[in-house]
## 1
Amino acid sequence: MLPIKIIPINQNYLEFWHRIYNDPATRQHQPIQPTTMAEQEVMLNRFVDHDLANNTLPSYKWILIESESSQPIGFASFHRLQIEQGIGRIGYSISPEFWGKGYATQAVVQLTSLIFRKTNMERLEAVCSIHNPASQRVLDKAGFKYEGVRRDYLRIRDERIDHHSYAILKSDWLAK
Ligand SMILES: CC(C)(COP(=O)(O)OP(=O)(O)OC[C@H]1O[C@@H](n2cnc3c(N)ncnc32)[C@H](O)[C@@H]1OP(=O)(O)O)[C@@H](O)C(=O)NCCC(=O)NCCS
């Protein structure tokens, strides 16, 4: 398995991000709508400020890079759900041609470590559609604990879908 690195998203990756974001295979189990390049650029500009220590920033986006080839292979996100309570959520997507190489698991492990080191988060959550066993497996492998099903949790293409709920606590991460 080749190592990956995660870097804050920037303008150089706009086209890549737009392509993967709009790929039907990537969107299949996610509540995201197709975008134009102009809309994607507006979204990207919300993530230009990337100071993890700044509690007032709601969301962050990273591009995942295959270290050896320097190719972008996916993206990941972190959102502050409850600042005072130290609760956040992560998400991730890998380009289909790179599936099955362990990259999403690596990304989640790296992201978890980065967030617990650089923010005041004490609990990181992740949810995945009950129709997305690969994502479930990623969270299991990355040390997240299964917490049950959130019924009809997110609307994906006009249908509310049950989602598996996972979380890792800072204390879990420190004990590793
Ligand atoms: C889900 C996703 C992130 C996985 O990325 P990935 O880089 O292939 O993940 P990894 O290689 O780290 O691990 C995938 C694991 O799922 C397993 N898997 C794949 N398809 C599976 C299936 N249909 N049923 C059960 N397990 C499956 C793989 O075998 C692997 O487990 P293993 O290492 O024990 O063999 C990727 O498919 C993706 O980006 N999908 C579209 C976007 C998305 O769904 N994001 C998550 C939203 S919650």
## 2
Amino acid sequence: MQKDRSIPFTAIPFFGIHLACLLVFLPSIREATTTTTIVLAIACFLIRKFGITGGYHRYFSHRTYKTSRFFQFVLAFLGGAAAQKGALWWAAHHRHHHKHSDQDEDVHSPARDGIWWSHVGWVLSPMYNRTRYEMIKDMTKFPELVFLNNWHLVPIFVLGGICYLIDGWAGVVWGTFVSTVFLYHTTFAINSFCHMLGRRRFPTTDDSKNSLILALLTLGEGWHNNHHYYQNSVNQGFYWWQIDITYYVLRVLSWTGVVWELRMPPERVLALGRNPARLSEMMEQLKTSAAHATDRTREAALAAAHAASETATAAAHVATETAAKVASAVMPNPEPTP
Ligand SMILES: [Zn+2]
Ligand SMILES: [Zn+2]
């Protein structure tokens, strides 16, 4: 589908919140900034990041564990406070991404549409404002989730109010503006950089990569190649050394009974990931089949172009004949000049 790359007026709040971060240099804010302010900003980042990773991604998008209706709402609210639209909007688009990863239909593929588009362009585009409810039917039966999805700005205003009550305007600037911008770009980096930079352990048909740095910045989401290979697992770091803080939090929550039935990757997937010889063999097979597919696509395109040109020639021939017949019917031979 052709993508509309213009930046609409509705993107003003997004750029506005970036500009608002400069308020940290305002003398009155600088004077009011204390250790409490910085702790508040870090807490606002971490709690909302978990709302995105543990909630929007691992629960609403992939259903990798179970929880109560109440905690499900809490997750939707925490993720909503990150100002990345509603849980249903986010999860539906994410499911679509997995279905078409790095193909033409993919909403945010850096290989197809470039880094700017995959990082942020698609989020701002009015083309994707609509929630793809057809992709998230399992969650639309909860009216409170649909309500929050429609009123997705409520949580960020609530957060702004809490920050103000705790630490005044310095709390709002650091806890709401600055930490939200960090949330944006660390989350968006999974869609952009994690399909460009890093290592590929598993042979997937997309460009997904694993990145320790992004895993640290996103509470474990940087093991994106693992995740694209096996999406149904609550942990995205598959091995002990793949740090995955979201998973550790969910594991602790499972001990308290807040969440349960955490789905783990099967042993065959873990064993494959530890078998470099088999992995490189599979990677080669994937490249060969991709090259064949490209050849077949090229041949199909040539055949289609050839067929189209033949059809056009035949149509032109028919049109010429018809025009000649019409002309001779409308304009009979002129009388010979006496
Ligand atoms: Zn996913
Ligand atoms: Zn991806």
